[in-house]
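Collaborator request, handled under Task 6.
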Amino acid sequence: MSPRGGWWPFGRRGHGEERPSAEQAAAAEAQTRLLGVLARELAAAQTEPWDGLSYLAFVVADRTQEHVSIRGGWPPPRAQKPTSPTFAEALAELRRVTAPPGLGAWFSVSLTVRAGGAVDASYDFDSEPGFLPPAGPEDFARDLERFPRSVETQPSWLRERLSWARLTRDQRLRAEAGVAALHPYPPPPGGQRRLFTVAVTPDGVVDVLDHQSARRALVDRDGAVQLVQTDPSVRPS
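Structure tokens returned to the collaborator:
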């Protein structure tokens, strides 16, 4: 997870911009306030003594998956997840105020709370969140509606997920057949998920691109699959 320090906008300050605007300063103040709320709620949820708390959350659309751990003692005390509405509301508001216009919101946040009350935060806007089970294409499409992000700033995995969200049921079935033709074997345990971006041509052919091999599967309306080897130097980023 990459740390993003400061406010504008977490390492994405524009060229020539020396000072944050009044709006950015207000958002930074809100961020500090919300991190304090989250730290207090995390501490209040614990039932065992602790030296430090670590909190990790994956968030997309209306789905949140959380992990909490405690530092102090051996074996480590059992950590408790915060369940108060105050914590959930503050987390949602933190995501909103730290979403730069046109650049989307973070998908992962990591908080470290020390016994004295200090809290550090890092945000990850670019890595696919590690949901189990994985979040679906529709989740990311809903998230994009809420937090718009230009195509130029979307990582390749997000563009791939959004391409699947635009398919009809029939197109998705044909796209899955194309994926099976391109890569008939399941990935090894713990292996990185392969990316298969999908497009639909004007004549209704489903075009599936394997990012790793640069091969394509063209799936016609009748389900016929044609494999095409494209120039491997023109692979998606």
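The cover message to the collaborator said: "Helices lie at 22-45, 85-97, 137-146, 156-165, 169-182. The longest strand covers residues 52-60. Please let us know whether this matches your experimental observations."
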